[in-house]
Amino acid sequence: MVNIAVLGYGTVGSGVVEVINTNQAIVNKRAGKEINVKYVLDLRDFPGDPVEKILVHDYDVIVTDPTVDIIVEVMGGVDPAYKFVKRALLMGKSVCTSNKELVAKHGAELIAIAEENNINFLFEAAVGGGIPIIRPLNTSLTADDITEITGILNGTTNYILTEMAEKGSAFEDVLKVAQEKGYAERNPEADIEGYDACRKIAILTSLVVGEQVNYEDIHTEGITKITKEDFKYAKALKASIKLLGTSKKIGDKFYSMVAPVMIGKNHPLINVNGVFNGIFVHGNVLDDVMFYGRGAGKLPTASAVVSDVVDAAKHLKDNIMTIWSEEEATLGDFAEFKNKFFVRMKDKGLDDDQMMDIKNAFGNVLYVKAPDVKDELAFITEPICESEFAERIKTLEDVYSVIRVDF
Ligand code: HSE
Q1: 0.90 exceeded by the pTM?
Q2: Are 64 and 99 in a shared domain?
C-alpha cells in the first residue's frame, strides 16, 4: 500500500480524492499498488464530508508520519506551499503538485532536492490542466531541438475570449461564469492580466531549455483591453484573438512573451475554444505536434495530479530525471522580437493626410474594414521589431487598440 496525503481540499484537492475513489481499481492496477488517501490537510472543517475522518489541520502530523510516501500539494500560492513541499522532499517523500506559481518560482530547486533524495517532484497539472505536456516534454520529445512552443495556456481567458467572439458577451459577465465553473484563480487578475499564462510558458520554456527561465523576464500582457470592435475586425479577417504564451528560438536564444494575438484560420490553435487549452510544439526533426484538452476545471486537473501519483508510486525511491537546472537561462531581448501589428484608430476624415502619417510611421500597411464599425481606420503592419513599433506608434494620435498578428 502507498499512503498519500492531500494538502488543500479546494476545487483540485476534492477532485483528487474523487478521482482516486471513482477510479480506484484502475488507478491501483496502473500503480501496481493500492493508493490510500491517509490524510487531507485543510484549515477548514468539512462536516458530513467523507474526508472528515482523515482531515487534519496540522502539517506536522503528515510530514512526520513515516508511512506517508507521497504528498499531493494542491493548495496553490507560494507560501506556505514552498515550505511544506521542500520539507516533504527533504524528509524523503515524493511530491505531486498542480501549483504553477510554486513550480515556476522554485521548480529547479525542488527538482534538485528530489534528485538528491532519490524521490520525485512531479507537476503535470501545473500546465495545461488535464493535458499531458510535462511528461511528453520530459520523456517523448527528447530527440528534438525544440524551436517553438506556443500555447493557449489559460482556460479562463480562452473561455472569455471565445464567448466574446461567438456571442458578443461582455467581458465581466463571462468572467463571473468562469469563476462559478471553478476555472478562474482565486484572484482573477492572475488570469486576465496574463500572469498565470506567463508562469506556465516559463515552466515549459525552462523544460525545453533545461535551465531556469524567470517569469519576471517574460513580457506579459493580458486581455482586459480587448473589445467587441476588435472581434468585429477579427471576424472580417476570418481570424480570432487568443491569449498566447509563446517561446520561439531565433539564433541560439528563446524569445518569449504572453499577449493577445490575432491568429488566422490556418493557425494550429485557431480551433481551441472555451476552457480548452492547446499547446503547439515544433521540433527540428519531429516537425509539428499539438496537445489539446481541458486546461482547467476540477476533474481534468485532478486527473493529471493522480497520473503523477501513479508515476510516483511506480517510482518510489527511484528518481525520474527532469532536466531543469538552477542555472538562469538568458532570453533574447524582447525589444528585438519581430511581429506584425493590427492597429485601430480614429478616422479623422482627413483621408490622404492621415494615410500619409500612417505611411510615414509604418511604410506599406494593409487596411482592414469591418462591417458596422464607423469613424475608424484599421490596418496591419509588416513585421517590425517591438522597440521600433513602440517608437513609431507614438507618432499617431487617437489609437484605440494594438494587437499582434500572426498570419
Ligand atoms: N485559472 C487557470 C486557468 C486554472 O484558467 O487556466 C488552471 O491552471
Answers
A1: yes
A2: yes
